Amino acid sequence: MEFKLFITEEDILTNTNDYDLGKIIREKFWNLKEEALYLSEVEYEHCIICGKLSPYTINTPNEDRIGYVEGSGQSCYQSNKCDKI
């Protein structure tokens, strides 16, 4: 499993010693890993056009979704955010 961890300028400037900065980085890492494990356990729908993950699980009723195309599947729930449109 691979993901990107972002450290902000604020993180660096507010944690002046490397030990505290390391604690912040490690905490961000474990939070991202936990989130990735959660997402892998729950099946989310993907946009049929660009493939991005949608906020809807496979169990979400079609009438409760935004961007669902009957007969095709889930498209991006915000059409202006779809990479392929």
What brief labels describe this structure?
2 helices; two-stranded antiparallel ribbon; 4 strands; two-stranded antiparallel sheet; alpha+beta; 85 residues
Descriptive account of the structure:
With 85 residues, this protein is α+β, with helices and mostly antiparallel strands. The protein has two domains: 9-41, no CATH class; 44-81, no CATH class. Helices cover 35% and strands 14% of the residues. It is built from two helices and four strands; from the N terminus they run ααββββ. The chain has helices at residues 9-14, 18-41; strands spanning 44-46, 53-57, 68-69, 73-74. It has a two-stranded antiparallel ribbon with strand order 1-2. It has a two-stranded antiparallel sheet with strand order 3-4. The longest helix is centred in the middle third of the chain and has 24 residues, at 18-41. The chain is elongated. The model has no long low-confidence stretch (mean pLDDT 82).
Compact overview of the structure:
This protein has 85 residues and is of the alpha+beta class. Helix content is 35%, strand content 14%.
Largest sheet: 2 strands, antiparallel
- The tally of structural domains comes to 2
Q: Judging from the principal axes of the Cα atoms, what is the shape?
A: elongated
Number of helices: 2
Distance between the termini: 29 Å
Class from secondary-structure proportions = alpha+beta
Helix % is: 25-40%
Strand content: 5-15%
Radius of gyration: 18 Å
Helices and strands, in order, run as: HHEEEE
Tell me the quaternary state.
single chain
Q: Uncertain spans, ≥5 residues at pLDDT below 50?
A: none
What's the total number of strands? 4
